[in-house]
What we know:
Domain ABM: 2-91
Number of domains: 1
Largest sheet: 4 strands, antiparallel
Protein name: Antibiotic biosynthesis monooxygenase
Oligomer: single chain
Strand content: 25-35%
Keywords: Monooxygenase, Oxidoreductase
InterPro entries: ABM_dom, Dimeric_a/b-barrel
GO molecular function: monooxygenase activity
Mean pLDDT: 91
Low-confidence stretches: none
Amino acid sequence: MMTIITRVVLREEGAERWDGAMHERVAAARDKPGWISAQLLKGVDEPLERAIVGVWETREDWSAWHHDEAFRSTREELVGLEAGQMDSTWFEVVQNTATEED
Length: 102
């Protein structure tokens, strides 16, 4: 299982539209092979900062999703809403307590 964490800072005038487009993107990803879960996070101290935490079976599954039409259509909606480049980091999941039984 792999997790990718992507961080970005939004333009103030585009934050609501960005949040809506990302909500659509996550909803569309649910049915894709290898998708496990996602979180869309908003900065507490920096309200224009966002983080996306995506959990996938493999990086290949995630990559295939980025070539899907649903992903590409939301990319067009996001153009100009971000104040800078997205920064992504991959992690291999060592333990996932959310799905383990006690």
